[in-house]
Design brief:
This protein has 107 residues and is α+β, with helices and mostly antiparallel strands. It has helices at 61-67, 71-77, 81-89, 103-106; strands at residues 10-18, 28-36, 42-49, 96-99. The chain contains 4 helices and 4 strands, in the order βββαααβα. A 4-stranded mixed sheet has the order 3-2-1-4. The longest helix is centred in the C-terminal third of the chain and has 9 residues, at 81-89. It is elongated and about 45 Å long.
Length: 107
């Protein structure tokens, strides 16, 4: 079904990079959000590396290969998810459509 956005709606493109594909044992390492209007003009964007528990000593080689992210980046630039949650939450509100690839995994 084809649908049309009205000016009442905005889209949020959401993407997480993670330490793997298992939602029960892998961790997010980066989040990116882009807010666009109904004409797909970028209104705002946000990106942050996310720190991982100390028990995670390295990333799987395929994760680093696909994302370009390594443990040094996560260690030096990663932030606790609780500290960035307010910024992430500020992207969502009424009349929000969330768009992403493999979105069931990301949310």
């Amino acid at each position: 079904q084809l649908w049309t956005l009205t000016s009442d709606y905005t889209d949020r493109f959401l993407d997480f990079e993670t330490t793997g594909h298992d939602v029960t044992s892998d961790y997010p390492i980066q989040i990116a959000l882009i807010l666009v209007d109904h004409n797909f003009q970028v209104l705002n964007s946000y990106s942050s590396y996310i720190s991982v528990p100390n028990s995670v000593l390295s990333l799987k080689s395929n994760v680093s290969y696909m994302t370009g992210i390594n443990m040094e980046t996560i260690t030096s630039q990663g932030q606790e998810i609780a500290s960035i949650q307010p910024e992430i939450s500020s992207f969502f509100g009424d009349n929000t459509i969330i768009v992403g690839q493999n979105i069931n995994f990301d949310i």
